Amino acid sequence: MGDPGFSDPTVGGADLPDGVDGSSNRRGRLALGLLLIALLLLCAITTMVETFVSKTPDQIRVVTKNLECLQCHSELIPQMSWPSVHDPFVKKQCTTCHTPHGHVEAKSVVSGISQTWERTKTLIEWLPLKFVVDVFYSGEGKTGETGGKVVSTTETKVKDKDSTPTASEDELCWICHGNLGPYRKMAYPHEPFKDGYCTNCHDPHASKFRVLLTQDERDLCVTCHRLGPELARTQVHPPVEGRFCTNCHHPHGSEYKGVLVANQRDLCFTCHPSVAPLSLKPVQHEPFLDARCTECHEPHGSDYPPLLIKNQPPLCYDCHPGIQYDFLKKSHHPVGTVKLDCTGCHDPHGADYPALLAAKDNEMCYQCHRVAIQATYDKSAHYKTLCIRCHTPHGSDYGPLLLAPNPDVCLRCHPAADFDESSSTTYRNNHPVRPRHYDVKAREPLTCTSTCHNPHGTAHNYMLRYYDFPSDGNCLICHQVVPGKRVGIDF
Q: How many CA atoms are closer than 13 Å to the CA of 26, on its beta-carbon side?
């Protein structure tokens, strides 16, 4: 048996002497540690190089200048490369608009691993670049803190834990954008702008849309302004259909109702140049003259082309109610049908002739009555007489659109002493032309024009319908006797 005080090193469970296997384990751990450090250093160098290559010098300087803030707010770093970046955000300090965080009490604990990793990753990526920037761009000034004091901590609020704007929301933007102040005092300011809610429309840091808008402008306006029903109408104004709202409306303020960029008439002329020359005409429609286009036209969409607020003629009756009753009379122009509307005779904007007529005197009527009337009328004794001396253009109780009953309308120019019949007090040897008599040829009440004359002219003298005077042909039409059948009067 061996000595009981001796331990055999070959027997399991016994401690090995120093320097046999213990040193080997330490070397292995050291090698592993060095390898991890090398990998970490390699990752850091790779990340730094990638950042240096992928970012512009301006972006690198901005991030490193604000590294103290961005090590925690790292989600803002990618926004530096967006198409639209707020100038203070990209060129100045975060503290231009934000106060630094308030006082906090902190004690080191093993917690906040995710936060610590984000900070560490950001510092690994940007801190070496900060040193480079500080060396080569030292003339631009340095930030106070490097943001390199990163520890795993828990923080307890004491006061003012959260950063706050350096001024109230409705005043902060004016520090740099004071030039927009006059819009706030205009007659029609945009409500969010007037109340200082700039961030309702603009992102304070960066945006993928122009002028830092929070959305594409074609989507932004409709979040507050309900346009769906108007977009669903039969005719939609092209700028509205494309949702280019700022073509017509100023986003901040205007002196014109509806926050328009100009008065209605000048604004409409920018897209409707063919209407602009009408503003030089001697006779202009009052709403057009006073730049009140939307009294007749819908600016967004309408079921009545061309973007009218209602169809014709009801639209015209809103301002001309007396004319509505003319078109309810026994004889009237077919206004309000597929054949004719008010703008068939009147220009709704401006014209060279009174009452906004499209042509002058009888030429206005000839636009529709040229074939049936002009050829004979211009050769008749009436050719110098205007149509409106006998006819009303809208409606009458006497057909066809006469200003007075026949023969009274004729006797305005043709003295009654020469043409009217005898009365109980006056004897005249004239042919009766009153409707109380009967025209056996026309089978209607007897008047000047029932059988004898055509007021628009004929191929015969005295505007006689059938024969030249003094032939008896016209008289014999009514005054003849047919054998076996009495037709007229037997002298």
A: 6
